[in-house]
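Let us begin with a simple case.
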Amino acid sequence: MQRNLIIAAAGIVVIGLGAWIYFAFFTGGTPSITTAPGATLPTAGQGAPPTSTTPGAPAVAPGAPSAVSARLIKISAGPVVPGEVVTNIAAANASSSPDVLVTYIERQSGNVYSYSARSKTLKRTSNKTLPGIQSASWLPDASLAFVRYLSGSDFSTVNTYALPSSGTGTASAGGQGFFLAQNLATVAVSSTGLLTVASGVNGSTVSSVRPDGTRSSELFTTPLSSIRVSFAGKNQYLVYTKPTASLSGDAFLVDGAGHFSLISGPLAGLVALASPSGKWVLVSHSLAGAMQMGLVNTETKVSVPLPVSTIADKCVWANNDSAVYCGIPVSPPFGDYPDDWYQGAAHFSDRIWKIDTAGRYAQLVLDFNKETDSSLDAEALAVDPLNTVLVFVNKNDRSLWSYSL
């Protein structure tokens, strides 16, 4: 009898402790959320993000960055949210070079961190709690990240929240967060604004929104109900059907008047990535279970095959259009690409290559396996505006790395 009472008492203590941990670490008290004019809050029961701050919390992130070699730095052991921004900060004096800051979000907490390439130090810039973020799209100045996460009892609602990189100031200065409309299919960011895509059975509507979430205006519509959209230079947009190996996809350029121009396709598993100026589009696709990749000149519509192949989502353009950096798999298995990679059925062992757009040649930049004795499956690549630092996430463990170019 006494033994049963002891077991029952222990069970009550465990339940109480579990409840305390949940409310202390996941609810974070009363959410502090502001909305932009015209924005839509999540409906009752779907859950607003717990964006509380912890008074007196330390500003320095746990775990210091580690130098693997003179040029390769492990910024964070992760997991981090895919999507980071790399910025150049003016030098303190004329004799020193600009600093490079890498701003990213920790996956478990939603806290924002900033890494200085000059001092090789890491600090937390915001301790708002927002767990469960799936992806982040940053403004180029690192003031806001448009983060996406699922909510609702069946996790069927997609929320897009503007998460500030710091906890003070106004919404336009990156101090207060706000929601965009629910269930957006895509969000794309540039220095002047963002694109939002609302999709349904009757097609998709692409709108332009100011960085503070105001002045939403429709740009164009399409009968395609499943698309990706991004900026492709000034007053031009890249639109392509969501990639899958089981269907042929097409890529289009859309001008400011909403006119579509086919630049590639139909190709199975098509993924496209526009250069900053919009002059080039990197296109990958699958053929008989193997990955193929080429460069499309958007003025001539001529496509040139490249000597190396990967999925375009594993690449990033240099900011002057001169080159594209990619994680190129070593001896990848045949499969249904890009589906197998998206779903985690295929894991790659990558090297980082630089593809020169003028000469169409590939140059090895980083053999990750030799420097670290571990494998790299690169995603969320980013480069600073001066093309001096390359940043990427290792999909194998969600760790964050930087490499001096």
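The second case is a distinct protein. As before, the sequence precedes its structure tokens.
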Amino acid sequence: MRQIATFLTAYARARRFNRLRRRSEIERIAQRGLQDLQQFAARRSPFYQRYAGAPLHEWPIMNKPTWMGEFDRINTVGAKLDDLLPLALRAESTRDFSRSWRGHTVGLSSGTSGHRGLFLVSPRERVQWAATLVARMLPYGLLSHERVAFVFRAGSPLYESIGTLGVQFRFFDQANPWQELATKVCLFRPTILVAQPQVLRLLTAAPDSLRPRRVVSVAEVLDELDRAQLEHRFGTQVEQIYQATEGLLGTTCESGTIHLNEPYLIVEPDWLDRNRSRFIPIITDLWRRTQPVIRYRLNDILRTRSAPCPCGRAALAIEAIEGRSDDLLWLRDRSGAQVPVFSDLLTRVVMQRVPALQEYEIVEVDRGHWRVGLSPLPPDSVQGELVAGLISLSESLGAEPPTLKIDSLITPPTSAKRRRVRGLGATSCAS
């Protein structure tokens, strides 16, 4: 009964927050939450004790290696990474995600950034997360009798928490043989289908009986190649859930715009360009207490929406999630200065110049040297058009064109996160 009461309270609060139309309301709620979080963390987290009473900008900026390296001192329940990591790895290998640590959910990120992240969530936080997600995903309420299919790499009691009242939830494990998995998804007849883009793409080949009313992309960047094919097959706008190890970061509104999860989050933008259109978010999750997420620098590049969203919500609107900072390629201009080349610009060129494209990737093998993989590999004339387009893009950015190698692409397995544009890593950007 206590969990149901917690769920309903959190659900009602999330519905109210989702209707906020004034920035002043969001900022007022967020500042109150921040004050509570800072006081709690300074009192209960050994790592943050020294920052008691300090303003937020004096608290350290975290990244995943530091967050994991200081795990034992950051968490507020005395958990030890060496005790939890075997538990999480055992769940991955046995595919049994029901085990917990003292009632707390333990899980791992996929580790595509090179650093696996471990998250620790209390039962109360798990219920609050579920209630917030249900409030965002189900605008018609808890009794809408939806069937939600999550096709994920790993399960978690976090997802099982969603199976509440009129919502029927089922987790489908990507580690199972694909044909068996696809058959089970079709037999479930989901009204809401949630998976990463490459899995959704594979499900476009499923029988017509798979007709979800809503399709939700998670875990990877949704680019226009995927979006076009998915919307053509399923006949509905593809929505997005922006989520990471660090928490629920954003969801799509009815107008198709991603709104960050304010006022549950405080977002400090680390701007990447002069006109402040793209940034890397530094987030503070105001509701995580077991493993505080304070001034955590994500590895994502977000592009802001220039016009107000028609839905009227005051939460920060994002035009696109363009990938991670490692998906940013760099060239040099004639003076030798660094010039950033954003992944969405590259995607547009590839899609415009290569018809009948099924898959692609652009990999920065060295500064100024890119390998472009295409599936299927088009004729030489089309390859020439693509080279011309990429050179034209480089010149329009004021950069010296890269050396390009085009070859056939081998499609990655569905268990791995897709990164269509992969750079060598972060560098400084001209301010």
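Residues 23-44 form the longest helix (22 residues). The chain has twelve helices and 20 strands.
Keep these points in mind for the review questions at the end of the chapter.
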